[in-house]
Amino acid sequence: MNSHQLLKGKKGIIFGALDENSIAWQVALKAYEQGAQFVLSNAPVALRKKDIFKLAELTNSQVISADVTQISELEDLYTETMRLMGGKIDFVLHSVGMSPNVRKSIPYEELNYDYMMKTLDVSAISLHKVLSVAKRMDVINDWGSVVALSYIASQRTFSSYSDMAQAKAMLESIVRQFGYHYGRTNKVRINSISQSPTKTTAGTGVSGFNSFYYYAHDMSPLGNADAMACADYCITLFSDYTRMVTMQNLFHDGGFSSMGISNKLIEQYEKCFDPQRED
To answer: What is the pLDDT of residue 278?
Structure first.
């Protein structure tokens, strides 16, 4: 996307930039290119990697540590952000997700439920907290935009995606529910983007990720959408060109979500077809 200054004068917060593979990282670069000012935020443990401070230099932005599961830390983040920005903000990116069950390769049928609650809190309920505190503190300008990142496993079964599937389903439900309430009071629009499998640190941590990735690529007529393309889409949702789009889960996946099977996959299966196969 060329720089048309789509976000000139707009201010925001971008949660979740970890390294240059992160979608949030690419969103920050694109938002800066399009004229936005913003704060970068991530959990204290993520800041130890220190890459985010390089991003801050590239985008002339500030980094503020915040655990999105902690109300007091969100309050402090918003207070400091409004001080730095000289007032309210216009957009928020929620690019946050983590599953201890996935990290520890615990089978879905044997989930650790304490871990599952952590998955839901970090990956989904945190969006409600981000929005609830913002609404109470009157942080987002009227007609502002909030975007959360999701995945089609919220609606379909991906065998190794584990409890992250439940988290994404909850995330999308919060988008719809809060989209109504924030829309009625402040015209703030809230949407989620259901993105293609993307080679991020979190994504590649899912068992069988390469199979997810290449299957989706071979299924989709346009192939997989990468992090930079997703960033472009986020910019359009932050801009004034999408002022009437809210409460939507928007598929950004090269057409994968509308496919049953593709010619490429048919050809691959035909090559290995065993006429004696019964299962």
So the answer is: 64
